Amino acid sequence: MKAAPFTDVLSKEEIARLMRPSNARGWWLVATNWAIIAAAFALAIAWPNPVTIVLAVLLIAGRQLGLGIIVHDAAHHALFASRTTNERVGQWLAGHPMNTSLAKYRSYHLKHHRHAGTPQDPDIGFVAKYPVSRDSLRRKFARDLTGRTGVRDLAITLKKFRLAEQWPWLAFHVGLLATLSLAGGWWAYALWWVALLFVYPAIVRLRQIGEHGVAEERGDLDPRRNTSTTVARWWERLFVAPNHVHYHLEHHLAAGVPPYRLGEMHRLLNERGYYDGFACVSRGYADVIRRAMRAPAAG
After folding, report:
1. What would the pLDDT profile of 236-294 be if each residue is shown by its tens digit?
2. Spatial distance between the Cα atoms of 137 and 217, rounded to a whole number of angstroms
3. Residues 108, 78: contact at Cβ < 8 Å?
4. Which long-range contacts (CB under 8 A, 24 or more apart) does 139-146 make?
5. How far apart, in whole angstroms, are the C-alpha atoms of residue 154 and residue 95?
6. Distance between CA atoms of 261 and 239, rounded to whole angstroms?
7. pLDDT value at residue 296
8. Is 2 helix (H, G, I), strand (E, B) or coil?
9. Longest dimension (CA), the chain
10. Where does residue 153 rank: exposed (0-12), middle (13-18), buried (19+ CB within 10 A)?
11. How many CB atoms lie within 10 A of CB 164?
């Protein structure tokens, strides 16, 4: 049976409004991410103790993902009205700090949208085996939180490092260290790396599971069966689901909808019964974890 398009339940005027980018909201989203990063560093420097340092690391890791999501949204030209602004902001204010090429990411990511859940999906390897056993899921997150995943990924990055291409990434780190030193907390520079190596991989894994790992049937062409949305609480949005990334099903339905309008799109589709009969919405990330684990075999 052919999947019912979401345009059956939304009017042309509603779709046009949802697709309309706002430069003010785009800049606010970018500024908010950097403000949280700055506040995290300031908190640790002003009141250095185990609680503030752990909190700073968690906030920074969440916003490292946030920068990655800015690259993602800019790659879809969905953050600002101008394609040029999307390209420049996405690359310089998010891509370079995370050592990501927006152009290369776009080429890779659009294949994911064309082939989501199929063997041709370049991201299928991240989620193909879900649901997994409780022990398997525990081992995966243990690898992330003990730094094994992060160190492995950093080693790959350094092996591919080319100064002519990646000097802005190096310049970002020199600038970050200099800024923190001027603020009287050169040691806080290490928090960026602690977040990147020990927390960020676990957040990325949780995001991947929530997007496609708990999908009802990944090989189905209906996005309601190969993709999921997570209704995130405020603290989940702060730490693990920045920039509206948890509305992933809505993004797959219409990739051109700006991230700051995905919540409205979800509300409209949900109120009109578009998700009825589909297991495509998780209620928080505890629900994601529950759905990612298969039940133990009988006996």
Report:
1. 999 999 999 999 999 999 999 999 999 999 999 999 999 999 999 999 999 999 999 98
2. 20
3. no
4. 140/205, 141/202, 141/205, 143/201, 144/198, 144/201, 144/202, 144/205, 145/198, 145/199, 145/202, 146/198
5. 16
6. 20
7. 66
8. coil
9. 63
10. middle
11. 5
pLDDT tens-digit map of 38-88? 999 999 999 999 999 999 999 999 999 999 999 999 999 999 999 999 999
Q: Which residues contact 16 (CB under 8 A, 6 or more apart)?
A: none
The SS3 call for residue 26 is: helix
3-state secondary structure of 173: helix
Span 146-156, pLDDT tens digits: 999 999 999 99
18 and 254 in contact (C-beta within 8 Å)? Answer: yes
**CB 98 within 8 Å of CB 258:** no
Residue with tokens 């309008």: 261
Alpha-carbon Rg of the chain, whole angstroms? 20
Inform me whether the pLDDT recorded for 3 exceeds 90: no
Q: Are 64 and 200 in contact (CB under 8 A)?
A: yes
Nearest to residue 167, comparing CAs of 179, 178, 156, 175? Answer: 175
Phi, psi of 230 (to 5 degrees): -120, 125
The number of helices, as runs of H, and strands, as runs of E, in the chain is 16, 2
Alpha carbons 214 and 58: distance in angstroms, whole number: 25
What is the model's pLDDT at position 64? 98
Question: What does the pLDDT average to over 172-198?
Answer: 98
Q: How far is residue 266's CA from residue 251's CA, in Å, rounded to a whole number?
A: 10
Phi first, then psi: give them for residue 156, nearest 5 degrees: -65, -40
In 3-state terms the chain splits into helix, strand, coil percentages (rounded to 5) of: 70, 0, 30
Show the tokens assigned to 153.
């990924």
